[in-house]
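Pasting as-is:
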Amino acid sequence: MSLSAAHKRVLIAGSVGNFIEWYEFAVYGFMATLMAKNFFQLEGESALTSLILTYAAFAVAFFFRPLGAVVFGRLGDRYGRKPVLIAVLILMTLATAAIGLVPVYGSIGVAAPLLITALRILQGLFAGGEYGGAVSLMTEFAPPGKRGFYGAWQSLTVAFGLLAGVAVVAVLPLLIGDAAMSDWGWRIPFLLALPLGAIALWLRSGLEESPQFAQATEAESASVGATARAIVLGIGRLMVWSAAGYTYLVIMPTYLQAALHTGFNQALLIAVISNLGFAATILPAGILSDRVGRRAVMLLATFLLLVLAFPLLKVLQDPQNGLLIKAAVVFVAGALVGMLAGPGPAMLAEMFPTRVRYTGLGLAYSLSNALFSGCAGLIITGLMKQTGNADIPAWYVMGTALVSFVALWTLNKDDHRRPL
């Protein structure tokens, strides 16, 4: 599928901020045990409690994403996609790098976890303004019949960001040793956001404004009530994508270590394989949705997640199964999430008029992630602690899949053919 130089730049510059965002979230998720040890291991508390506190700081950032979606979305719908996307990129990069500079709990006491939590809040706020603008820009630039393909690039950078995060976390201990990684090496992945952000800023500064935004009029705005209904429906449609995505792609390494006593390196390897499965299906699913519709592709993926969540987890839990079998299982799980992530951005963009698209799709996405991604580690770990049930991850995915299946059923079969 050939693209002009201008459209290639739109795809790369539009999605590069998403790469940095998910790289950082992956780094924090994959290093949850190290973050817990350095910042949340309070006196007299168990290691599991410190892990829960670590995930609580992880979750709180997601709850500020909707606020960021509203604040920056309104600016983006009023003044344009480009200036707001540049602003949130700079702010998000600085907040990420700052985490790498915070003194540990042993040095400054309770101020350490408070500072980490505050920076996570700022990250969530700024990241909330990224997704809506990037997807709006990319789908508004898309030629007719290619919105699924263009939007899928935004999801593909999620996979790239997660893979980059796990690669850095896996390679660093080999270079500097486990002791150094635990002591100071954990700071390096966060500080790497600075050069990544500089490259992204250079790419994004050369962007043109979305032609559709430039031509839009205030009369194209939807009513507050219609926008609110679309946001709620969007959350329902995204629920399983958010829940399954974080369960299989980010939380799984920690789950394997804490619940199944899997080694750190093997757990990270499994995370890499699940993310490779995720990456493998995103673009094909986006392209397929341009041909057969978003509804068919996303319903199929949701149904498969519903019926396979429990069997897949049981294979992982069986100590008789070797690494090859477990790798195949997580690859399939990641691939099913990719089937949702491919058509998902275009599906969201098609739900909102131009003058409220940045705000509307950004808010639907951020609320879904706040409730079902950001809380996934907290919910799964907390329920496992209370019940002792190692099957909680499967029940979590199945519950959200059931709701999303109903919401996705309401999609029109020909939305992909209609003008944006």
